[in-house]
Amino acid sequence: MVSGSVTRTLKRRALTTVGLTALLAWGGAFSALAGEAPVLAEKVQAGTLPPLEERLPKDPLVVAPVDEVGEYGGTWRSAMVGGSDDGWILRTVSYENLMRWSPDWTEVVPNVAGSVDVNDDATLFTFHLREGMKWSDGAPFTADDVKFWYEDLFLNKEFSPTPTEPFINSDGSPAKFRMIDDTTFEFEFANPKGLFLQYLATARPLDIATVRFPRHYLEKFHPKYNPDIQKEIDAAGQSNWVGLMVNKSNYWTNTEVPTINAWDFTQGYGSGSATQAIAERNPYYWKVDTEGNQLPYIDTRFFNVLSDPQVLVTKTLAGEIDFQDRSLATPANKPVLYQGQQQGGYEFFTETPASPNYIVMMLNLNHKDPEKREIFQNRDFRIGLSYAMDRQELLDVVWLGQGEIAQTSVMPGSVYYNEQLAKQYTEYDLDKANEYLDKVLPNKDSSGMRLGPDGKPFAITYAYSAANPVFGDALELVAAQWRKAGIAMTPTPLDRTLIQTRQDAGELEGVAWERGGGAGQEVVLDPRWWFPANNDSFYWAPAWTAYYLGANPETSQVKPEAPPPAIQKQMDLYNELQAEPDFDKQVELMNEILQIAADEFWTMGVAWQANGYGVKKTNFHNVPESMPASWIYPTPAPTNPEQYYIGKN
């Protein structure tokens, strides 16, 4: 075993993306301690904080700065929109998984784990933690913390009713966990798990959870370790210990829970009336730069909590935002932001898209209204809507002509690209639209609007995030286009929290969304658009998704239903793919899934995205000129925000 690496004897291509990063160093022997932030040095001098050599692990992770060794100090100002915009926190604070993506997104590399060994058939994964690594309160971080999460939370039927990927075997049973010693543990699967390390590098909550639960702090909120747990439940105003544990383990709302992140929240972010959140540097952070200086460089993270994304534009123009893309970097905002660069003292960086479309338009194929369910499940209806969409007008008006007309699909150049999936039904043709829609809703009122089977006016409500006004602009235009084909559609802006609530309950009728899945390994790791694969597929197939995820029909908000044969075939193929360690075979299986998606036409799109952008102040350094734009990546986290720094110019 080589420290800071992944070792294996398996030579199949399935695991060739898991290895050492091309950076200068990602671990290895560490011999020199150079520096620490002045605010921490003062505490060491005052005797209120141990010296640096006692705070760092024996083998800290060495991060090569993008451009140069940085300067300590400063406050990074950014913003979140609404009370549940925690994705920005995940992307810039808390991407500290066992494994992580390399900055160029070409491989998976060790992170919290100093190294990992994989056996020949990818069924046994042995992780080696960094000796001497600590939580933000100075307590040791060990394999016992991972054991606590896995055995006492993940396998607890109350806390986690149904074991889920990536910690399950092909039959749905959980992987075996063994703690070898304080720095070593294993996950063993009954079948090959060719995607396991890739999953551990993603931004999904479960993949981060492995290292997010400090046992020394949280075990008092677990009935197994606290016979007086009811006192804690009552004191926290919770109804049961599960709610208590969720509340106490949330690092961005509970400022008392220790973390391993670069910054630790001192003023939490919640769904209340708070207008800001603050995180300060973690004195026990376990990464250093190439000269041995402890990271992060920046002292403080300040998050404005805004109710209107337009305020974010105003703050950026006024020079009050240091680094931001989320909720800001829209095509509509680009002209005004471009003009305001000198005034605001900022500049652009490039983001290359991995999304399968600017906007994914989905109908709830498991609608609770039997009539609408039957209509939405009729492929002719979806084809008719697609022909009624003038994508060129949408592209010109909403996205300023930037992009290429396409359905929700994998982008060209990928081994998963499917021409049929990408280009079918994309031409604007009202005659064809009416031909297909007449098969499903032939009756109209005197104004030409279509009537449902019950003789009443037929209408669709499309939800979208109020934090993304571009979607509102697009849907208003789509509504006008569809009206020409006799379809009434109403765009409805909702807070992300409400969208999530309705999604979980299967209550969304139509929804417009945008995330990754259109490039690289995202296609395989997050196939939410192609079949009901994960929780995000609840947008368009909640009952079938619940079925695939093994939801309990007695307790699940959405009652699981067996899917039609085409989707069942996709589910079987994906199960086979996840158990397949050979990369070429994985590609073959995924392409079969995509071909079924093309034939069935589950969701619609408008166009592939042009390159995106982000904004950073001119004195905000060590940011790459270009980075992938992706949720799985998740932008900008793998570019190592801990090595960003604020300079004098």
Please give a structural write-up.
Pfam families: SBP_bac_5 (PF00496). It comes from Martelella endophytica. One of its GO terms (cellular component) is ATP-binding cassette (ABC) transporter complex. InterPro entries: SBP_5, SBP_5_dom. Its main location: periplasm. Among the domains are: 86 residues, no CATH class; 249 residues, Dipeptide-binding Protein, Domain 3 (Dipeptide-binding Protein, domain 3, Roll), CATH 3.10.105. Helix 18 links the parallel strand 18 and strand 19. Helix 22 runs antiparallel to helix 23. Strands 1-6-7-9-8 form a five-stranded mixed sheet, with helices on one face. The protein has a four-stranded mixed sheet with strand order 3-13-11-10. Strands 14-22-15-24 form a four-stranded mixed sheet. The longest helix has 18 residues. The two termini are 44 Å apart. It is globular. The chain has 23 helices and 25 strands. With 649 residues, the chain is an alpha/beta fold.
